[in-house]
Amino acid sequence: MKQFFRYLYDCRYVWLWALLSGAVFSIVFALYGIPAGAVGYPLLMSAIFGLIFLVLGFLRYRKKHLGLNSLNPEEAPCAEYLPRADSLTERDYQTLVFREEAANRAGKEAWDSARKDMNDYYAAWVHQIKAPIAVMRVMLQQTDTQENRELAAELFRIEQYVEMALCYVRLGEGSSDLVIQEYDLDDIIRKAVRKFAGQFIRRKIRLVYNGTDVRVLTDEKWLLFIIEQLLSNAVKYTPEGGTVTITVDDKKQLVVTDTGIGISKEDLPRIFEKGYTGYNGRLDKKSTGIGLYLCRTAADKLGHRLLAQSEPGKGSRFIVDLDMYPFQAE
């Protein structure tokens, strides 16, 4: 009914003209003394034909309305499927749509090209910077001194930031980098633990992990990235002598718990936002607010759920729910 009343409103000048014309004819015929039947019969016939044309016009109006609503600009350019213009005004509007769509298409092509160039540059830069990092690591391992250990720790952080930059670029390119299949969760966790073993020893932080025989449907590389980022934060915000615990329960929930400084209640709802560092980030001037954002983004792409629980002064608890899948293995 709303469409019908809208159609009547759009045709308001036509039927108002018809009513006004009928009134004029009735008045003129009455002034000339012509019988009312001579006026009523043609007016009745005109009203019937007018009603028929009104219904036909509404059906065409509704068909065009439904056709326009069914257009999806994401599937194909709307300008190629617009219905035929019935008036000069509609033709003018369609011309504006064609021009706007052409401008948007040209802008999108330029933006895609610039983004591709930027992604290619970052990918090339990451691979090039790995060579001097590897050389510096070998040089630092030649002599075991306290200074070299500190430099090796800082070099490890540099390597983390480099990997984070590459992951940031890859996550923006869609899901083409994903290889989804079943993996032994224990193997993935142990890879992350081995990578951070030196950091745990250097910071004198105790790591508790008893292994698991759980198999999960995921992408090994990206799940490993998530675990590494959680361990990195645990090491960063846990003081010397603290404990980091990794557990996996029967519901395939991977939990990383630390006894660090914790997260305030005000910051907890926003820690996965891009660039948000919170109170802890302001204490640590080197915090970027990107790590947990990339973890949440990667988890969403994998179909996992990432949760955080914390209490200031008592530590944090990050949960990766590996049993939440919107898809099935083929």
Automatic annotation (TrEMBL):
One Gene Ontology CC term in the entry: plasma membrane
SUPFAM superfamilies, A to Z: ATPase domain of HSP90 chaperone/DNA topoisomerase II/histidine kinase
A biological-process GO annotation: cellular response to phosphate starvation
Membrane topology: Multi-pass membrane protein
Keywords: Cell membrane, Kinase, Membrane, Transferase, Transmembrane, Transmembrane helix, Two-component regulatory system
Subcellular location: Cell membrane
All copies of domain Histidine kinase, residue ranges: 124-326
Transmembrane segments: 12-34, 40-59
EC numbers: 2.7.13.3
Entry-linked Gene3D superfamilies: Histidine kinase-like ATPase, C-terminal domain (3.30.565.10)
UniProt keyword DNA-binding, yes or no: no
Alphabetical list of Pfam families matching this protein: HATPase_c
Annotated GO MF terms: phosphoprotein phosphatase activity; phosphorelay sensor kinase activity
Catalytic activity: ATP + protein L-histidine = ADP + protein N-phospho-L-histidine
Protein name listed in UniProt: histidine kinase
Species, as recorded: Mediterraneibacter catenae
